[in-house]
Amino acid sequence: MAPRAKPKPAKTWTAIPALGVRVACAGDLAMVGTQALVTCEHAVLSVMVDEDAKTIDQALAGHAAEEKAYLQSRTTTANRSAHRYRKAYENEGGAGTNYWVDVMLEIGGRVLICQTGSIATDHTSAKAAAAAGDLCETIEPLP
User: Fold this and answer.
1) Which residues pair with 53 in a beta bridge?
2) What is the pLDDT of residues 97-133, one digit of tens each?
3) What architecture is domain 14-141?
4) Main-chain phi, psi angles of 127, to 5 degrees
5) What contacts 44, CB < 8 A, 6 or more positions away?
6) Separation between Cα atoms, residue 44 and residue 92, nearest integer Å
7) In sequence order, which residues have a C-beta less than 8 Å from that of residue 22 and are 6 or more positions away?
8) pLDDT tens by residue, 28-44
9) What is the pTM of this model?
């Protein structure tokens, strides 16, 4: 008889009631105005609503100059699907090279923007920033 597969542990969620969403991490929530800061084990997520856009196309058009600067001046990857836009980029600062991920999600007729990097000891790791960005992609409406 084949061994039974172990059940996957249930996801732990952090609710962001002010935005009507939740993210798949056990974290602490702080609201700074209309911006939610979710501190997870290895990342801090900054989550906000783009008040001027209802679709990612509108959000990208509204941030066109900013997007052009990111795409030209930094090593960047950008990926787009129907209801998601993700870009990864790096910048140089006093602490050396830092890696960041921004994700835009269409949820409930509005665009949420989640920005993150990594607060792990290896905070300059592109891989750690990518893992933090994966958390942004778990954002979903509150049940």
Assistant:
1) none
2) 778 889 999 999 999 999 988 644 455 577 778 888 8
3) 3-Layer(aba) Sandwich (3.40)
4) -65, -40
5) 37, 38, 116, 117, 119
6) 19
7) 13, 14, 15, 16, 139, 140, 141, 142, 143
8) 999 999 999 999 887 89
9) 0.82
